[in-house]
Amino acid sequence: MKRSVELVVISDVHLGTYGCKAKELLRYLNSIQPKTLVLNGDIIDIWQFKKSYFPKPHLKVIKKILSLATKSTDVYYITGNHDEMFRKFTDFELGKLKVCNKICLDINQKKTWIFHGDVFDASVQHSKWIAKLGGKGYDLLIIINNIVNWFLEKMGREKYSFSKKIKNNVKKAVKYIGDFELTASELAIDNHYDYVICGHIHQPQIREVVNKKGSCTYLNSGDWIENLSALEYNDKEWKIFYYDDHKHLLNDDETEEIQDLNTSELLKIVTNFSE
């Protein structure tokens, strides 16, 4: 039985990288029936793309998204920095799928501004090679972390996140996250938005921000590498969905996958975007 959800926001899936939890994301997508699905950047990681590594679960996620867009779900693909090559297709529409750089929605008479958030990242805007180098280092850290967690699970121990530990203990990382959230919120308040929704920093969040000019709700959908999280809006309420808290309720039903696009054809499409 699928859950009906008015709006779902996911970001930072990084399909095509070793850290991506595509199987888990597919289980989540198979468990819901969203009216609107917002893919808020870095869904396919063109920066780290390798023709030798794009497993079937990663392709199945793309097929599932296309399947939703051919039926009753409005799908917005907002471009991020890791999939910036799609920006040349801004305003492209295919069925219910639309590619864009940002969207503004009216949710229960609340003005909602959704964008990836890399516009605030100076390393991406001015020193792309540094950002890409950092991305490779992060990918390596995730690979090592996955190996360690495999041994921890075999030993009956709890999983451990290296990057979360680093982020929580390095003052610069904590300050960057705080600055990011505040900057996005202040811009939203200046432009009279009630909600501002970002991705990019892999930090799930729902918080109220208030300044002298007003207030807004800042939200972040997190990622599908470490947090395995999404934002859901239903019955006039925002919630953060954490896969690990609900995985025992999800099934592996894939009966609704589209059948008219095979795996090799889909891989060709992804490869063409990366070149």
Automatic annotation (TrEMBL):
GO terms for molecular function: metal ion binding; UDP-2,3-diacylglucosamine hydrolase activity. The keyword Mitochondrion does not apply. It holds the Pfam family Metallophos. SUPFAM superfamilies: Metallo-dependent phosphatases. GO terms for biological process: lipid A biosynthetic process. InterPro entries: Calcineurin-like_PHP, LpxH-like, Metallo-depent_PP-like. Residues 7-204 form the Calcineurin-like phosphoesterase domain. CDD domains: MPP_YbbF-LpxH (cd07398). Keywords: Cell inner membrane, Cell membrane, Manganese, Membrane, Metal-binding. GO terms for cellular component: membrane. Gene3D superfamilies: 3.60.21.10. The keyword Nucleotide-binding does not apply. This is Calcineurin-like phosphoesterase domain-containing protein. It comes from Chryseobacterium populi.
